[in-house]
Amino acid sequence: MLNLTFSVLAEQYQFEKNDNYILIETDFEFISINKTNSNNYFTECSDLIRFISNDFEEDEYQRSDHNIHAVYFLPSHKQKELIKHINQEEIIDELEVYYTLEMKESFRVSYSIRREVVNIPHRDRSSCSTSFYGVDEEVGLDALIKTAEELLKLNAMKDFEIAVGTIFGEMGLLEKGYKIKTENPQSKHYNFWKFCERKTGKSFFDIGKSFKMISREEVSL
Fold it and tell me: What 3-state DSSP class applies to 110?
């Protein structure tokens, strides 16, 4: 794990700051992060678990063992918006880069007005994040998959697929939750906000490249 102080983050990525908050620019909005508990924030973390939704058609978003499509790492509110417009066979300007070529050729352009960039208060930050799970100690793949399968027993994650990988330091900010989700190894939930691509040169496509889909058959439990 790589933990950077907020003063370093603010200087490196030109984030605004005041006495209590740092204002992070993501690809979609600005999010206020409370600086009073900086020990729970990280810019890099390995052995993260991402549950892959089956809301997208597999033939529209092809993925191989080493290339998971960027849509699977969008923050939840943007993923829901993308799915909504796919169902309506519309392309919304703000998310156009994530549609497949076939969709761009056959869907009609949406008349949705592109939203102005908004500021999200600290209390609402989790609604604009991408969810991951991670373990505090270094474990092997078998233990990581066992943890993921324990988490899959939660109703909210039923029928999701498993991907594991790393968030690198230049990608964004991770916030580790307090509540222990599984024991032995202990796992916790992470909120992730991707730093603005204009500042980092990194996209959601780059995040997908660092994650691998896991087949239950390739791991002996």
Answer: coil
Residue type, 64: S
Q: Is 187 helix (H, G, I), strand (E, B) or coil?
A: strand
Q: What is the mean pLDDT of the chain?
A: 82
Element counts in the chain: helices (H) and strands (E): 6, 13
Query: What residues are paired with 131 via a beta bridge?
Result: 191
The CA distance from 104 to 90, in Å, is 9
pLDDT digits (tens, 9 = 90+) for 26-61: 999 999 998 877 788 899 988 898 988 777 766 667
Give the closest residue to 104 by CA, choosing from 95, 112, 113, 117.
95
Q: Strand ranges (DSSP E) for the chain?
A: 16-17, 21-25, 30-34, 41-42, 45-52, 90-91, 108-109, 119-120, 130-135, 161-167, 172-182, 187-194, 211-213
Nearest one of 118, 116, 117, 122 to 32, comparing CA atoms: 122
Residue-wise DSSP of 40-87: GEESBEEEEEEEEPS-S-TTTS--BTTB--GGGGS-HHHHHHHHHHHH
The structure's pTM equals: 0.88
> Alpha-carbon dihedral of residues 122, 124, 127, 131, nearest 10 degrees?
40
Read off the DSSP letter of residue 37. Answer: G
Determine the Cα–Cα distance for residues 82 and 144; give it in Å rounded to an integer: 30
C-alpha–C-alpha distance, residues 60 and 147, integer Å: 29
The tokens of 112 are what?
Answer: 């949705």
